[in-house]
Structure formats: structure tokens, C-alpha cells
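Reply to dn_fold:

You asked what the input looked like. This is it:
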Amino acid sequence: MTTSTTVLDARGLTKTFDGRTVLHEVDLQVRDGELVAVMGPSGSGKSTLLYTVSGMDTLTSGTVSFAGQDLGSLSQKQLARLRLTTMGFVFQHVHLLKNLCLLDNVVLPAYLAGLAPREELNRRAAGLMERMGVADLATRDVSEASGGQLQRIGICRALMNEPSIVLGDEPTGALDSAAAGEVLDILGELNAEGTTVVLVTHDPTVAARADRVLYMVDGRIVADRQQGRYTGADREGRHADVTAWLTEQDRRRTEAPLGSVV
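and this is what came back:
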């Protein structure tokens, strides 16, 4: 039996803004090939955790290691290069350039990385857009696509440099249920192919798809639910189980004394 390796390892992670501690000595390990959902009430530090472990934001103290590299030992240029070539990012609101067509938006990160000639990059981008069902939008601009289509474009862009991990901040938050389900199917397929996925979300439907669900309160991970691979065989039961678990976490949070760890 093969034991998966730890691709992301944060130890004692602390983040302070303007004298206020947003993350309190968080430990987080993500194994290669996992699909992890990070949940919790608004303001609990979910997005800050995502941005800090990816090197998009600086940490106040602690360490973050990604694929064996200590992010704190890298220069800003090295860190930017690492993010560009090994990480993919999918946000709630897709940040696309309005002066570029959608194909060029997809190509952009790979063009900046300089990993291949432009013709090859165009072929790869077209292939990703075909897979995501948005190939017919290649020459369109941002205003000519729906929210669900733009999120698919965002996933294409995130995958252009074949990242080993995809990090998402509420990637389905701005979508209707049908579009959100399609995006989750795509992320699930990528994960099944071996890509590690970490998603910040408020949606139990997203959490039900995860191998593991983390629950944050006041800058701390207070619960870690291991629930195994999602197969879709018992979709309703899985959703009901994780919803009940989240309800229990919310109850414990609201009943806990002020300042205590749940």
C-alpha cells in the first residue's frame, strides 16, 4: 500500500493585521491528491489561511512548506515563480482582463511563465477550453460569457501550467446551483486525476464532495472531519451527514464561552 506524501505543511502559522491576530498558530497538513474543504463562519480566517499557505500573503510567524520548499526562505521573485508554475487559483469572482479575449486570458499565466512557444500554449489553452465546454467562447470578451462560463475559463487558466495543487476561494459562491454543480464536477475530475485541491467554502454541497473537511473558528482549526472519497453513490446521505456535522460545529461554537477553543 502506498502512503501519500504531504504536499502542503504549515506549522504554527500566525497572521496579525493591525494588531489583531487573524490566525492563531495553525497547523495544517494536506496530502498529495487530497480534496480538502475549509469551512467556518465569516471572519474565521478561512481565506487568510488560503492566501498565507500559498504565499500570496506573508505570515507573521510559523512556517509553510510546499512540495518540500520552505516558502519563508524564498525571495518574492522565487515565490511568484513557484505560485505561477506549481499552483492554480480559482476565486469566487474570476479576475480576467477585459482587454483580452477569453483564450488570451487562459494563455496568460503560461505566457508569463515562458514554458513553451505561444503556438503550443494556444493549443493547450484550446484543449482545456474544449474539455471545459467553453471552446466556442475563445474569441469572445469577458462581457460575452455567463458567470458559470467565466468560472470554467478561470479553471482553464488555473490549469495552464499543470499545477500540482489548485486552491479555490469560494469558487462556486457566485453561481447558481446548476453551474456550481458543473464546476464541482470539473474540480472532482481533476482531483481524481491526481491534482490536490483545497477549497474555502460556505457550501455543504462542496464539503460533501471533499475527502476531508476542516472547520475554523476565530483563526483556529477546531475540527477535522475525515470522510473518505466521494463517489456519488450516496450523494444525499453524504450531504446529510456533513450538514449534520456542520450544524453540530455551529452549535458548539455558539455555546462555547467567549474566547475559548471549541
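Residues 23 and 171 are 22 Å apart (CA to CA).
Hope that clears it up.
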